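Re-running the complex after MR caught last week's input typo. The corrected sequence lines follow. Everything else is unchanged.
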Amino acid sequence: MTSGSIFDETRTAPAADARPATRPLAGTVALVTGASSGIGAASAGMLAAHGAAALAARRTDRLTALAADIQGQGGTALVLESDITDERQATAAVDRTVNELGRLDTLVNNAGVMLLGPVVDAPLSEWQRMVEINVLGLLYCAHAALPHLLRAAETGPRRVADMVNISSVAGRVARGGRGVYNLTKHGIGAFSESLRQEVTGRHVRVSLVEPGATATELAGHNRAEVLETMRTQVTGIEPMQAKDVADAIAYIVTRPRHVAVNEILIRPTEQE
Ligand SMILES: NC(=O)c1ccc[n+]([C@@H]2O[C@H](COP(=O)([O-])OP(=O)(O)OC[C@H]3O[C@@H](n4cnc5c(N)ncnc54)[C@H](OP(=O)(O)O)[C@@H]3O)[C@@H](O)[C@H]2O)c1
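Corrected-run output:
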């Protein structure tokens, strides 16, 4: 599945090197979707170093390795096998987090796929997959998590809660050859801003992170001809590492209660 990626990074990201001396998220729990690789794995490791983390994805071998890494550093991690395109599994991931770790303060809606190529003659199954994971999966998790986030903001140790939705530069700028990926990520931006306005007064912060090219497995799921086109487009650019984006996510959720970072657009320096 991962071979042929232009930004191949097949190793699961390690947890943060050590737990920081001061832990701004102490006593809180974060759920990260798509925690088995790339940005999600790096973010889960980083958030677990500050508090506790629940790791959701389909590949449990990856999640178990990451959880062992986190636990080896004295952190807390819960492995959740979950295909978030199934509403019941998405809801169960949230419920198990709350039942087994006691609460939910932070949701990182990170799981996603990017299947590019021209609209004309595109396989419909690729569009269905992107909408099911990037849009519906995110909505199922958001819907299940919101009551818990609102409760955490009211009664939790920090009196604030966070939903961080991972969009993309593709959620800001539409380009030929990526129409449905653009659609899903623009949709996440619109949903996030609307929800932000609804719940920010109750101290649930809704944030949008829009990464540019990052070295993960994401591109590797594309058809060979699409990968070839992508290779020619990104040649010579030093991509970001998953940890660079995880840093942005950790920055957002560790702000004090009165500060909401609504949006971070983060690109490799050389990306136009
Ligand atoms: N890499 C980039 O250049 C880049 C740029 C902009 C935005 N992003 C966004 O960043 C997010 C993370 O991507 P990444 O780059 O870290 O790619 P990645 O390494 O491919 O990670 C994607 C994650 O999503 C999970 N996932 C896929 N389908 C799922 C499903 N049905 N249910 C649950 N989990 C599922 C995968 O886990 P399993 O396969 O184990 O389920 C994996 O952990 C995505 O939303 C992507 O659009 C990435």
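None of the earlier attempt is carried over here. The longest helix spans residues 124-155. Residues 33-34, 36-40, 57-59, 82-85, 110-114, 133, 137, 166, 168, 211, 213-214, 216-218, 242 surround NAP (CB under 6 Å).
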